[in-house]
Design goal:
Subcellular location (chains A, B): Endoplasmic reticulum membrane
Family (chains A, B): Belongs to the membrane-bound acyltransferase family. Sterol o-acyltransferase subfamily.
Strand content of chain A: under 5%
Number of domains of chain A: 2
Structural class of chain A: mainly alpha
Helix content of chain A: 55-70%
InterPro entries (chains A, B): MBOAT_fam, Oat_ACAT_DAG_ARE
Oligomer: homodimer
Distance between the termini of chain A: 66 Å
Largest interface: A-B, 130 and 130 residues
Radius of gyration of chain A: 30 Å
Largest sheet of chain A: none
GO molecular function, one term (chains A, B): diacylglycerol O-acyltransferase activity
Membrane topology (chains A, B): Multi-pass membrane protein
Chain lengths: 457, 457
């Protein structure tokens, strides 16, 4: 308790029988409302409560860490035998199959390019439009691409479902197969339309002019696309000036650190919570299931955020640095999104860009309205999500599919909130997003698949 | 996933062998860093994470509510027999003693005022300075006040310590006694100096001029001070224009609601946590004590905030409305304080104002430096805190005293942070305040007194 700077107490004197300081200072000299009263014209800052919130979150979860330690001790242990050798071998085989499919796609495009060159030479001579023969050949090319891509995805999927036991290896294989499958589709679609433009002398985007069709049909060009952090094929990409080793090492270090953190968090906190929930689900004890869901929601949100950062910030930036890939917009600030629609547009830009370029926009181009075109996109995405989760865990129970399809009504509900542009509307929308996605959706899905997986094992 | 508004896909045509939409759109057209990269010039907003934090806090604590319910059911039950009739009778007696002490103080001042009037009349005639006789009489007056005030506090304290069993009744009695004691001191000091000014023709603050000394020595004036929401005596206070019934009812309703909430939270959440901690303290199991402390910290912070609002916003504003007391600055925005010093200046303005006017400023007036004067203030406050907690629980274990004295080093440590005026410095200071005060200090003190209280019972 220190005196305000503006009224220093008077110095003592010896002349009075009492020191000069008087206890008569008028402390209450004017009427004024309390700081939190509505009578006040200004609202005080509440920044201190934000700090308190952070601290209570830390204290509350630190307590759970101590409780977990007292209950379970350290659950982490590294046993190299936890992966079956057969799984590792088959996983590697699936991985090595991929260049084969890419090479086939390259050969198909090479043949198509040769035909296109021939056709253009003919056109110049005879000045006639594309012959019927070419149209038939193009259908053959499309069929060859479709067969190749489908084989790429289905062989891996079958192997993952029937032969790979470990869910982690299975998920990695399936994820890789899906990514390459999408890349093959993008490669085929883009080159078809580049060929079309080439024959019809349509203009192509300016950035492609340094490598006009069919010069882009080379093994090098396709290999770059294979490793580039994008699902959308372009003959030419914006490139960064040079490879920065320190940037790469930092991103790579982050990725390793976060992966270890995720592994630790999952083993030490998520697995016991999931295990303890099995009895609750078995007995359909609703209060207990709810309690488990809420306990899981914090850890699943933390793991999710770590995973997002590890993949989209650290991983893709590290890869992009190696590839000198210039466009690093792998995500934008989805955490502020005021609607589910905004979230899906922002969090995973590579997939969003693929969907927009190769599914949504073509459908719109064929005259579809926004609603059905969006529904198609989410249907496609829902099937892929179910494959990614259901195949490695051998539980095609449709929860991931349903979760993706449930986005459509949620997007419709939060769309008005996004359009209102007010702070409180966007706060409400943002909270709906976090609650539906991180606090309910993901832990619920995790519980479902864990329960189904445990029933099988 | 919706197309950006600025590139509507072209409409389909029948003239080409393919629809006009081309899959060749350049998605990656320029190099740009990721949203969270340091390469970016602007930092994105993180407001969404604040929302997430709120939701995780809610979910985490809702889970604890469910867990608590599954473990204990509903612990609340109202038994009117929980207060001993003897306690209630004695508590009421202590309460009713107070007007007696106030009346004695009034009589003492009445005598002093009569003398002062006489002396002034003499002075006017003889024009001499205050005689020695007056000085002796003033010492008598001071002695009478001291005796009266000391009796007021000590009789109640003794009754609370030896005869009142229930800690709640004891705390209320002791709190009331301390408040009236402080008011008696302020009344005596202020009137002494008003008298001094009256005799020496010193000017007094402007606001007092509507009721100059000795006109303020009336039963009405003292009764108003008794009920006014302040510890600092002034002959005249700023008044609000009129009593607003709706304002009063709202504040009163808030106070009742919050009191019920505090009672519920304490019974349902704090008491089981405290009970469970007894074994941990008994065995000196450090990890377990820490876990209990952290579990307690959330509930104690919530109870503390509810209590603060109930007393300082709702209670004192309701009382002030009834008394038409104008100066409602019972607190300012202490939750943002960047230092412990700031907190103690802001959270409890009535006590701060008393300390400043009647202890700190007079000591400074006598030539004390800031450090020793502050130390005196905290020493005084520490003794009162120990009395308020130690006497009703019959455990004068010195933890409240030590807690108050520990503020001095904490204030010294956080003072530089407050003076830096930077955002991060004040955030650090604010976090030190919350941690030391709400997350560690209070739950620790609660644990200590609960443990000591349980040992005795």
């Amino acid at each position: 308790m220190e005196a305000a700077k503006n009224d220093p107490p008077p110095l003592p004197t010896k002349h009075s029988i009492l020191p000069k300081y008087k206890h008569t200072l008028a402390i209450h000299s004017k009427a004024r409302p309390s700081c939190l009263s509505h009578d006040r014209e200004t609202t005080p800052s509440f920044i201190g409560f934000r700090n308190l919130m952070v601290l209570v979150l830390i204290a509350g979860n630190l307590r759970l860490v101590v409780e977990n330690y007292m209950k379970y001790g350290v659950l982490i242990g590294f046993s190299p035998g936890s992966f079956r050798p057969g799984d590792v071998r088959l996983g590697l085989l699936c991985y090595l199959m991929v260049p084969g499919h890419l090479f086939i796609a390259y050969l198909v495009e090479l043949a198509a390019a040769a035909q296109a060159r021939q056709a253009q030479a003919m056109q110049k001579k005879t000045d006639e439009s594309k012959p019927v023969k070419l149209r038939v050949q193009w259908r053959l090319i499309a069929f060859a691409h479709a067969l190749n891509a489908t084989l790429c995805l289905s062989v891996t999927s079958a192997a993952v479902y029937w032969d790979i036991d470990h869910p982690l290896i299975g998920t990695l294989c399936e994820l890789h197969a899906v990514i390459v499958w999408l890349k093959l589709l993008s490669y085929a679609f883009t080159n078809r339309d580049l060929r079309d433009s080439y024959l019809e002398n349509h203009p192509v985007p300016e950035i492609y002019q340094s490598c006009p069709y069919p010069e882009n049909i080379t093994v090098n060009n396709l290999t770059y696309f294979w490793w580039a952090p994008t699902l959308v094929y372009q003959p030419v990409y914006p490139r960064s000036e040079k490879f920065r080793m320190s940037f790469f090492l930092k991103r790579f270090g982050e990725m390793i650190g976060l992966s270890v953190a995720i592994w630790f968090l999952t083993q030490q906190y998520a697995v016991p919570t999931l295990r303890n929930s099995l009895t609750a689900i078995d007995r359909l004890n609703l209060a207990h299931i709810l309690e488990r869901l809420m306990k899981l929601s914090t850890i699943s949100t933390v793991v999710w955020l770590c995973g997002f950062f590890a993949v989209f910030q650290s991983g893709l930036n590290a890869l992009a640095e190696v590839m000198r890939f210039g466009d690093r917009e792998f995500y934008s600030d989805w955490w502020n999104s005021a609607s589910l629609g905004g979230y899906w547009r922002m969090w995973n830009r590579p997939v969003y860009q693929f969907m927009k370029r190769h599914i949504y926009a073509p459908l719109r181009g064929r005259g579809w309205r926004h609603g059905p075109a969006s529904t198609m996109v989410f249907l496609f995405s829902a099937v892929l999500h179910e494959m990614l989760v259901g195949l490695p865990t051998k539980n095609i129970i449709g929860v991931a599919f349903a979760g993706m399809m449930a986005q459509l009504p949620l997007i419709a509900v939060t769309l008005p909130l996004e359009k209102m542009h007010g702070t409180s509307a966007s706060t409400v929308g943002n909270m709906i997003f976090w609650t539906s996605f991180c606090l309910v959706g993901q832990p619920f899905a995790a519980l479902c698949y864990f329960f189904a997986y445990s029933l099988r094992n």
